[in-house]
Amino acid sequence: MASDADDICRRMEAVRRTAGEEVETIVQSAKTLSDWRYYVKNHPFLLAGAAAGLGFFLIPRRKSPPTPGAADAKELIELLKKHHVSGVTVEGPPSGLLKTVAGLATPFLIRTAMNFAQTRLESGDWSSLFGGKAASPAETPDDEQSFEEFNIPR
């Protein structure tokens, strides 16, 4: 029995010695986890996403203007007929799949053509565009003078 009591006393003494260090470690961890700079440094994308989501939910949506309904259009037509106004037709905006596709594709095609032209201008290689063979620097004639040779006074 005495050895059990001595064993318990030794364990208690070891716990008392290490308790101070463990408490300091816990306090330091709590300070680190409660500091917002820790999260910005270690999880920047998560915080940016959370801020964007919070902003999305906090900012009120735009109020759309009231759209006239079918009843308003019918009332307007009746008023026009009542006051004998002629030449007025009621049509909606032009619609159709072909017009929509053309409207979406036009900026893309223009941008592609501009990029193509820009690369051709930068490289100076317009001959291959029209089916000719691209001129390489080795195939240029030797009898042409360079700009520096041409500018030298003689």
Main attributes of the structure:
154 residues; mainly alpha; 6 helices; 64% helix
Outline the structure in words.
The protein is mostly helical and 154 residues long. Helices cover 64% and strands 0% of the residues. It is built from six helices and no strands. It is elongated, with a radius of gyration of 40 Å. The relative contact order is 0.03.
Morphology call: elongated
Low-confidence stretches: none
Give the N-to-C terminal Cα separation: 119 Å
- The computed structural class is mainly alpha
Oligomer: single chain
Rg (C-alpha, Å): 40 Å
Total strand segments: 0
Largest sheet: none
Helix content, binned percent: 55-70%
Give a concise summary:
This protein has 154 residues and is an all-alpha fold.
Give the SSE map.
Blueprint: H1 2-33, H2 36-42, H3 44-58, H4 70-82, H5 97-123, H6 147-151
